[in-house]
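Re: that backbone. Tokens:
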């Protein structure tokens, strides 16, 4: 998942909230498959996401050829996705040359950083676990090293602001040190904006492989 500044945030928020959470945060809206889901009133917040991947080989190696060839298509799908707001990129249209998380390379051939902003968790999950992106995820062990530590962190930011790579590094460090909290959380243990309440997660959001 690698993207461009721009896009129009437009989507709903995640499934399986309790009735008290529903009363606090929003109204029922439609979700894929006809399931009814509540929507958080999040006009003042967007969701930031960072993912880091340790390379098994250099980006220009034959091993990474299929991954590099798929980037433009995967990025374009993200740019069109409901709820997409922004992604970190260089003039190449992706973030593969961004220098960050060097401390996390752990003997690999470098770290690929994906830093994006979305309307809400549901929007991000709908993209990450669907379409072309999930096809790429199924092949990730061909290109990226397994990691025992958390490699993806989510957190809320004021709408209209953008995260930096320094922010992203701090959130990954916090998640690894403290587990999911309102400061940095996961798909499995998401937190609501403003209140910081834990939101029951739907395992359908989680990686299918």
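Recovered sequence:
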């Amino acid at each position: 998942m690698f993207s461009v500044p721009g896009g129009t945030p437009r989507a709903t928020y995640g499934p399986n909230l309790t009735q008290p959470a529903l009363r606090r945060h929003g109204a029922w809206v439609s979700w894929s498959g006809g399931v009814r889901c509540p929507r958080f009133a999040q006009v003042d917040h967007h969701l930031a996401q960072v993912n880091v991947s340790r390379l098994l080989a250099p980006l220009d190696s034959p091993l990474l050829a299929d991954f590099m060839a798929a980037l433009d298509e995967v990025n374009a799908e993200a740019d069109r996705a409901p709820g997409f707001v922004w992604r970190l990129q260089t003039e190449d249209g992706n973030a593969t040359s961004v220098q960050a998380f060097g401390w996390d390379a752990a003997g690999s051939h470098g770290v690929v950083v994906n830093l994006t902003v979305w309307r809400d968790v549901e929007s991000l999950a709908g993209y990450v676990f669907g379409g072309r992106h999930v096809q790429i995820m199924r092949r990730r062990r061909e290109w990226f090293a397994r990691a025992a530590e958390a490699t993806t962190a989510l957190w809320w930011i004021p709408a209209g602001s953008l995260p930096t790579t320094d922010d992203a590094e701090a959130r990954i460090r916090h998640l690894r040190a403290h587990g999911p909290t309102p400061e940095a959380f996961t798909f499995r243990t998401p937190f609501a904006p403003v209140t910081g309440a834990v939101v029951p997660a739907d395992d359908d959001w989680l990686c299918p492989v």
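The longest helix spans residues 65-80. Residues 1-41, 205-209 have pLDDT under 50 and may be disordered.
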